[in-house]
């Protein structure tokens, strides 16, 4: 445990700056839950990146969610307007620490890395980088030092609000089989399993289970989603034509029976709403994103990579197209049968 002075009870407001990436924001939710359970603060407020506020809306014990891009002078002004006694910094960058310091918090806490320790009141020594550390544990370790106790429950958690749930009513329609969501995108091309393989899986699941198939992705992935839809023989619901924002994606994710995805943010959303996941890993090491008590099946491009090697450093060995359609089908069938029984 890093050497850190725990917070004394009765502080007025804790402001938590959430991570930049969508998946990391979800992986920070066990740490947020630990903060709310501690009872040390009268108010806990969060700062999320633009568009992510509706994703974390509804978290128990959180009093307010603000959005800020954390990029310039306007961000400093925005943060200064928010009352705060203690600011907890989850992003790792120097820029985020500088902006946070210039917003004049009473006490600034974060990991002392990348030359930013002098900006922090409490600079916590980060874990070594020679081996992967799960992001969930990384954030929980930081918060544990702040509240003075270990965080035992490290399950991801998101809540679907009533408004979000009602906003997606009718998208799935009447169905007799499971609803299966495909997420073929990722922030890097080498993390993407091919669109035609996603289409083959869609056809096989539609035929075997009479499944309703859906596909989702970011606004910049429209062409990729269209490719999956046109390559498949079965009908696929393209959620880009129905959803507006991450709150609705969270709500529909809670209604489907299975997500099949590359290593990207929707995996974490699905786990946080207790939806089973098949996740495909190419040249990214799954140990960075180990999830606790998740109902998921991980498919690795190179499952026999020695444990002292990190997949990120071996892109030639860990090409994602080494994962075969039959591997994905086997994992999907097993999770569907676990969820509904062998008659699914």
Question: What does this 3D model show about the protein?
Answer:
With 344 residues, the protein is of the alpha/beta class. The protein folds into 2 domains: 11-147, Rossmann fold; 166-340, Rossmann fold. It has helices spanning 22-27, 29-38, 53-56, 73-80, 94-102, 135-147, 162-167, 195-209, 222-231, 246-255, 265-272, 325-340, and strands at 11-17, 41-48, 64-67, 86-89, 107-111, 122-124, 179-183, 212-215, 236-238, 258-262, 277-281, 296-300. The strands form 2 sheets. It has a 6-stranded parallel beta sheet with strand order 3-2-1-4-5-6, sandwiched between helices. Strands 9-8-7-10-11-12 form a 6-stranded parallel beta sheet, with helices on both faces. α2 (29-38) packs parallel to α6 and α8 (195-209) crosses α9 (222-231). The longest helix is centred in the last third of the chain and has 16 residues, at 325-340. The radius of gyration is 21 Å and the shape is globular.
Provide a quick synopsis of the model:
The protein is α/β, with parallel strands linked by helices.
Key traits:
344 residues; alpha/beta; Rossmann fold; six-stranded parallel β-sheet; 12 helices; globular
Helix percentage: 25-40%
Mean pLDDT: 93
The major pleated sheet works out as: 6 strands, parallel
- List low-pLDDT spans: none
Strand elements, count: 12
Q: In one word, what is the shape?
A: globular
The SSE string, one letter per element, is EHHEHEHEHEEHHEHEHEHEHEEH
Instruction: Give the full name of the CATH homologous superfamily of the largest domain.
Output: Glycogen Phosphorylase B
């Amino acid at each position: 445990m890093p050497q850190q002075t725990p917070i004394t009870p009765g502080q007025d407001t804790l402001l938590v700056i959430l991570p930049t990436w969508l998946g990391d924001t979800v992986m920070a939710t066990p740490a947020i839950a630990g903060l709310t359970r501690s009872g040390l603060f009268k108010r806990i407020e969060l700062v999320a990146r633009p568009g992510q506020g509706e994703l974390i809306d509804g978290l128990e014990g959180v009093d307010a969610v603000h959005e800020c891009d954390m990029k310039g002078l306007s961000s400093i002004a925005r943060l200064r307007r928010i009352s705060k006694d203690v600011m907890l910094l989850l992003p790792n960058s120097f820029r985020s620490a500088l902006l946070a310091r210039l917003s004049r918090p009473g006490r600034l806490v974060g990991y002392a890395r990348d030359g930013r320790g002098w900006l922090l009141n409490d600079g916590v020594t980060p874990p070594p980088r020679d081996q992967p550390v799960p992001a969930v544990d990384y954030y929980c370790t930081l918060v544990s030092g702040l509240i003075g106790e270990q965080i035992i429950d490290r399950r991801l958690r998101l809540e679907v609000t009533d408004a979000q749930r009602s906003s997606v009513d009718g998208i799935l329609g009447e169905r007799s089989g499971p609803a299966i969501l495909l997420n073929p995108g990722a922030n890097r091309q080498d993390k993407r399993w091919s669109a035609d393989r996603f289409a083959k899986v869609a056809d096989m699941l539609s035929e075997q289970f009479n499944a309703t198939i859906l596909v989702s992705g970011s606004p910049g992935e429209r062409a990729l989603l269209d490719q999956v839809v046109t390559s498949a023989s079965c009908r696929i619901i393209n959620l880009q034509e129905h959803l507006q924002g991450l709150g609705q994606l969270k709500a529909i994710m809670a209604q489907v029976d299975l997500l099949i995805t590359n290593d990207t943010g929707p995996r974490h959303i699905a786990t946080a709403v207790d939806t089973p996941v098949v996740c495909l890993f190419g040249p990214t090491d799954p140990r960075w994103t180990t999830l606790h008590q998740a109902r998921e099946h991980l498919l690795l491009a190179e499952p026999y990579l020695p444990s002292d090697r990190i997949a990120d450093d071996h892109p030639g060995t860990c090409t994602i197209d080494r994962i075969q359609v039959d591997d994905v089908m086997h994992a999907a069938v097993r999770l569907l049968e676990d969820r509904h029984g062998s008659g699914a």
